[in-house]
Request: fold
Amino acid sequence: MSHPLYIAFIWHQHQPLYKSPGSGVSLSSSQQYRLPWVRLHGTKDYLDLVLLLERYPKLHQTVNLVPSLILQLEDYIAGTAFDPYLTASLTPDEQLTQQQREFIIQHFFDANHHTLIDPHPRYAELYQQRQDKGQAWCLANWELPDYGDLLAWHNLAWIDPLFWDDPEIAAWLKQGRNFTLSDRQRIYSKQREILSRIIPQHRKMQEAGQLEVTTTPYTHPILPLLADTNSGRVAVPNMTLPKQRFQWAEDIPRHLRKAWDLYKDRFGQIPRGLWPSEQSVSPAILPDIINQGYKWICSDEAVLGWTLKHLFHRDGAGNVEQPELLYRPYRLQTAEGDLSIVFRDHRLSDLIGFTYGAMPAKKAAADLVGHLQAIAKKQRDSHSEQPWLVTIALDGENCWEFYSQDGKPFLEALYQSLSDEPHLKLVTVSEFLEEFPATATIPGGQLHSGSWVDGSFTTWIGDPAKNRAWDYLTEARKMLASHPEATEENNPEAWEALYAAEGSDWFWWFGAGHSSNQDAIFDRLFREHLFGIYKALNEPIPPYLKQPVEIHAAQANHTPQGFIHPVIDGKGDEQDWDKAGRIEIGGARGTMHNSSVIQRLWYGVDHLNFYLRLDFKSGAAPGRDLPTELNLLWFYPEKTMVNSPIPLADVPDAAPLNYHFHHLLEVNLLTQSIQFREAGDNHQWHPRFSRAQVAINSCLELAVPWADLQVPPDYPLRLILVLADEGRFSNYLPENALIPIEVP
Reply:
C-alpha cells in the first residue's frame, strides 16, 4: 500500500518576559513592559496564521504557544500592560516630553521598512525624512501632527493585512494623516480586540481537530543547561564554561508542571506535545518530561545526526539524501518509559524562515511544494512500508515581517497547492503518532545534547558575556536555595523572578553571535529579574548587578549574524545589511591604509545568493579614485577540482594572491557589466553564463546566485577580491585574509 507523504508543520510562537518584575502586584495596577513585541506581534502574527489555515480545512497543523507569551497577552487584553511605545502612543501630542520625542524618532521605525513602512505613503514619508535628514533635523523641524501621525502609523502598520477589511481599520488606512489622540486610543482598543481572539481561536480549532496546540517549559529555559551547564561540552569538548557550574535539575519539573497546568486551564485538556526551548534536548531532561505526561517532543536534524553519528548530506536540489532516517518519528527509551520524538528538516524550515520572503509569493510556494513532491517521489521509489513524516518546524512570528503582506499571499498560494495535491497530507504530530506509532528506537542515553543551532549550545553559553550571566544566575539561585522557607506558595515573587531569569532569550543576546538595537534593554531585563529574587528574599542586591553584563558597543568587524536579502540597487539600505558580515577596510594598516577609497566590505548569504557590498569614500568614482575592474575569485578548500592562477599582470607572488582559484567574476565598475569564468586545464579560464546582479550608486552591491557556482548546500567556499586596471593588478581585500563562506 502506498502512503501519501505526511507533513507536520509546527509553528513556534514565543516572546520572552518583557515585564519588569515588581511593576505590578495585582491586575488592578499597571505593569511596566520594557518592549512592545508581545502586543505588536500579537496584532500581526498569531491570530491571522490560524485564521488563514481555517479556510483550508483539509490541512492540519501544530502551533506551539509558550506560556510566557500567553501570560503577557493576557496582561495586554486586561489593559494592565504598558510599554514605553504604548505610553507614548496614548500621550496627547502637546504633552510629549523632549525625551519621548527623541525616543519616538529613534524607535517608531523599528520594523522592516520594505514591508511595513514603504507600503504606507505617510509612514514612508516620515521614515525618509529621518533617513535623509537625520534624527536631529526631525527633532528640530517636526511639528505636532508629524509626531501624531508617526505614533498612529507605528501601531497601524503592525495590524495584519487579514484585518484590513475591518471598517475602522480600513478608514484609518485611507485617512493616512492628521491622526488624533482619539484615533490612537481606538487603534489601541482594536489591538486588544485582536489579542483577545488568539487563545479562543486556537482552542476552537484544536477542539475541531484541525489544530494541535503544544507548549514549552514555562519561561522558555534551555533545560539541558539547567540540568548541568557542563552539557555544553558534549558538542564542544573544549568549551570555556562559567566559573560556577549550574546544576539545578529540580527546576526542570517546575517549568514543565507550570506549563502543563497553564495549558490545561486555557485549553480545557492536557497537552500531548512539548517543544523544548530552542529544540534543546539531552538525556538528563527526558525522565521529567515523561513523568509530567508529555507524549512527544521535537528537535532538529542536527541533533538526530549527532545522535545517529550520521551526517545528513543534500543533493544538488537541496533535498536530503537517506531521507528515511530523517522523515520518521523515533521512540526514546528510558527507565521511566518511552517518549516519541520528531526531528525537523532544517533546510526546508529555514527556507520559510529566512529566504522565501525575498521571492515572489507564488514562486516561493511552488518551490516548497516542489521540494515536498520530490520527497514524495523518493518515498514511492523506496517502496517503504513505513509512511514518511516531514517535519517543518520554525518560529511562527518573526519571518513574516520580511514577506509581502505579512506572508498572506505566500500562505494562500502554499495552502491552495497543498489542498490540491493528493500525494501530500498535512497532519498534526499527534495524529500521525496515533496512526503510525514510532517503530525506530533510540536509547535515551544515546540522545545527543544540543539544540537547533549547529547541534550545540554555543548560542547560550561559552562566550565570556554569556558565562558571566550564568555566574550571576548561579549566585542568585544559591541565594534562593539558602532560604528554604521561601516556597512557591508563600514567596511566589522570588520564584517567578527566578523562572524569568532562567529563560533562554537573555543568553541569546549576550556576547557574540546575535545583536539588536535593544541589546542593552535585554541586559537590563535579565538583571532586573535577578534583582527580583534578592528583593523578594529581603537580601542586599550584589553591586555587580547594577552594572551591565557587557558593554553594548557596535562591533567594527563581525561575521554574518543571519540570512540577508538586500535589494541590489547600489544604495546600501541599512536594514538590508544589518545581519551581514562586516570588515572594516579604511582603518587597516599596510596596503589598504586610512586613505583607502573602499571603507568597508559587507558580505552575507541566503538560500539563493551570495551578497557583497563595498562602501566607498564619499564622492569616490571608478576610473578616477579607484581602479575600473573588481575581480571576485573563489576556491573550495579540501575539494579536488581544477584551479587556475589569477589571470592578471603584476600579481604579487604572496599568499593568498598566489593561490589558484576555481571561479572568477569580473565586474567592470564603469559599465557595471560582468564576465564570469571557470578554471580549466593548463591554467586556462573558460567563459560561463551568469545571472549575477550588480548596482553602483552610493556603494557597490552584488548578488551572485549559488546556481552560477554550481555548489550543493553545506559547501565551504573562500573568496578574495582583487582590484585591477586594464588587466593589471592594483590591490586586493580583505588584507592578508580570505572571506570564509558556507552555502546554506
Observations:
- The first strand starts at residue 5 and ends at 13.
- DSSP finds 26 helices and 24 strands in the chain.
